[in-house]
Structure formats: C-alpha cells, structure tokens
Amino acid sequence: MNLDTLRKLRETDATRTFSLPQELIDDPALSRTRKREILAEWASDASAIESFPALRLLPGTTFPVTLSAIRDALATLDGEVLEQVEEHARQEGAAKRRKNRSLHPTARGRKHAIELHMAN
User: Fold this and answer.
1) What domain range includes position 25?
2) Number of domains observed in the structure of the chain
3) What pTM did the predictor assign?
4) Is residue 12 over pLDDT 50?
C-alpha cells in the first residue's frame, strides 16, 4: 500500500474506532476487502511500537495489540472466504451429480448399445 492509500484509509475511518481486531471483523458495515486493508495497515511496521515490534498501537487506541491478534483476524477473514468457496464447490458438485444422475441411465444405455454393436 502506498502512502496516499494509507492516508485515505485513515481519513475514511476517522470517525470509526476499533480497540481490537475482532471488533473490526465483527463490524457488518465494512466490506471484507476494507477489513483486510485496515488489518494490513495495522500489521505494517508503521503501527509497530519501536521498542516492542510484536506489538501494534492502533489508531485511536491507548493500549497496544499483538501482531498475532491482527494475524488471527486476517486468518478469520481467510477462513470465511475458504468456507464460502468450499460451500459453493459443494453446491456445484451436488448440482452436477443431480444432472449426471438424470442423464446416467441414458448414457449407460448408449454405452451398452455401442458395446453390443461392436461385439457383433
């Protein structure tokens, strides 16, 4: 992310303050993309506490948050996406199986007819 993007992020969220990454994850007003952008900003070295690099001081907060908490929040977002992809794949697979079942007897009949023809 470049400096202009970071400035826009801060300006856009000036009225919205989160104390913990999980509060951000739970906010229904923000898109998944926006949540990822904010978490990435927090995870960056720009938010790091110089003497404790594993801690981040989030904009608008008075206490630090661990980098692992931010990474866990990102993993939560990734997990939600993975669950949606897996569910979509399951639904597509089920639809294909239903379609194949409806075509299966016909396909089996054609294959059998070809095999009989080839045997003669």
Assistant:
1) 3-87
2) 1
3) 0.56
4) yes
